[in-house]
Write a structure and sequence with these properties.
Strands 1-2-4-3 form a 4-stranded antiparallel β-sheet, with helices on one face. Helix content is about 60%, strand content about 25%. The chain folds into 2 domains: about 90 residues; about 80 residues, General secretion pathway protein M, EpsM (Gyrase A, domain 2). The termini are far apart. It is α+β, with helices and mostly antiparallel strands. It has 3 helices and 4 strands; from the N terminus they run ααββαββ.
């Protein structure tokens, strides 16, 4: 006898395909959700790692900035100490200058010239004195310019008859102090 299927096989085939489609779609959806979740977790991990590196770099930058400020402070202190050392060296080298200044002044001053005041400002010496005549002042200035310790004498004031030196010439002059080395003249 022939076999006749009276059941609605097409409907069952359609339902079977529909169930298979739903299962595949659900599996794909679950798979996509898993991939999205894993991607999200991975991206969050990368972001957190980058934030940790940024924080580390920021901390290092702050530390280096602090060290730079400390180095700049030390540089300023170094410059101040070098300036002090330079001043001390200059004082040490010019310690005997005052002795030479007075010794040379005593050697070159004419007998008719008397110094009243002597001031030193840096390398400049300001002399104030009294002389019997203008010729004595000229001789004193010549002696100053010939001395190895003095250079460039300049007469700033000369007065005759100034009280209390009524018969004498009162003068002020400025001269530069050298290091005492006589420069060799070229012939």
């Amino acid at each position: 006898m022939p076999h006749i299927n009276l059941l609605p096989w097409r409907e069952e085939l359609r339902r079977e395909r529909q169930r298979l489609f739903i299962n595949i779609a659900a599996g794909a959806a679950i798979l996509m959700l898993g991939i999205i979740a894993l991607t999200h977790i991975q991206i969050n991990g990368i972001i957190e790692g980058q934030q940790a590196r940024n924080t580390f770099l920021q901390d290092q930058i702050t530390r280096v900035d602090t060290e730079i400020k400390e180095i700049e402070s030390l540089e300023r202190e170094k410059q101040a100490l070098l300036a002090r050392m330079q001043i001390i060296q200059e004082l040490q080298s010019s310690r005997s200058e005052i002795v030479h200044l007075f010794d040379e002044t005593a050697k070159i001053i004419p007998e008719q010239v008397y110094l009243i005041k002597l001031n030193r400002t840096g390398r400049e010496i300001h002399l104030e004195g009294v002389a019997d005549s203008n010729e004595d002042i000229s001789e004193f200035m010549r002696n100053l310019s010939l001395s190895p310790w003095f250079t460039n004498p300049r007469l700033t004031v000369i007065e005759t008859g100034k009280a209390p030196y009524k018969d004498d010439s009162w003068f002020k002059l400025t001269v530069n102090l050298t290091n005492g080395k006589v420069e060799k003249e070229e012939k």
